[in-house]
PLP-dependent aminotransferase family protein (Paenibacillus faecis), 488 residues
Amino acid sequence: MFNDFRLAAGRPVYIQVRDYLKGLILKGALQSEQKLPSTRELGELLGVSRNSVISAYTLLEEEGFIYAQAGRGSYVASDASLPGPAADAEPWRMDWKERMSRQARQAVELDHMKRGLRAEKGTISFTSIAPDEQLFDLENVKRAFLDRMAMEGRVLLNYGYAKGYKPLMDYLLNYMESKGVDLQGKDILITNGFTEGLDIVLSALHRESGGAVICENPTHYTAIKNLKLHGFEITGIPMDPDGIDLERLEEALAERAYDCAYLVPSYHNPTGIVTSAEKRLALLQLFSRYRIPVIEDGFNEELRYSGSHVAPLIAMAGTGNSVVYLGSFSKVLFPGIRVGWVLADRALIDSLESVKRARSIHTSTLDQSLLFQYLQNGNLEKYLKKARMEYKRKYEWTKACCERYIPFSRLSGSGGLHLFIEFPEDFDTWKLLEACSEQGVIFTPGDMFYTDGRGRNTMRIGFSRVSDEDIGTGIRLIGETAAKMMGN
């Protein structure tokens, strides 16, 4: 015994000794009332200092695994080891798949990340639209953390409030006001990123129309997943180069009632289209006429590379309260800090706060305070300037490569971290992906973003985390492979 102990670097020795002995006790290798070696003897057996063993024994005694008798040594406590099964008892093994709910089964079915292509080392991957971690402003993040911890560290490590961390809430309200939002009668809720915000809003909506939602087609896949998991029937409306097709939208609204609309008006995922100001106003008028609330996804709003700023729908709605805005800095700053927000009518936020409290108590106060201090220190503007410059350069290079090499029917994307490509109707991007992956290049086929099973002739190209050289090499390979498949 004791000959299988191995020290690992980077962890206190006495903790490793404690864990090792605890494991022996729980497995029954050290039994109840068995006397343990003296601290000096065990130190020699394990190749560690006596002081490390003394500290390990102290911890084990505090945790109730051993006890000490003055002048006699240390012993394993009674009942400290796990009881073994009865000799004639068969361990019961449940088939958990049989116990899964319909929602859980559907979540697995919709989880493309779990079943998607794995990028082998050296693969050029255009699948990600996450920010490039090489741009992360690490020094200022560290400074923000230390600043906030110095001011109120003990408070931040305790429970927080479901509604959010007040300094961050106030900052974000001012931030949204700077986008032209009339804050009269509105309030804000902090969430664990965009996805929790959408989940909470959908769970709180009363379904007068049986759970029907209308949206752009294609649209954000995370939204499709959540809408389906909440039992919503999705109607997707095709898109024009300047946003959703208004004529088709009005036809759909006239045919039946809807409980809500979900829209991504800025740098739409996956098409990258920016809905024009004129069309945004027309959308608000249409939904107002049909009394349909709008969930606005503020995706990538800050990553504008050219053209004029277009106000979000919630700003264009003025004092109206029918728009629910979901915001996040995940694609602009640091997605590892899981902070998003819902800006909406005060009465709705009051209900959402209770839903949030019941589900997750509150978003990490530490994360919220770190984000607040980073923003408060004036870093967002400086970081955005650097990020926009780099992403704009990559965007223009990727777009130029696509225009040069890929025989597309339509290329869209006015900003953000991706481009969307459409081929002729009879083309299959899954077959293209299979051929390209064999040559070390992968991308995201576009059919997953469609609400009606269409889109097998489309693809999304994410460029944010791909080097210039790999962008050129990868796009050329995709284009050449597509041309061969089309017989060009």
Q: What stands out?
A: The two ends are 71 Å apart (CA to CA). The longest strand covers residues 233-240.
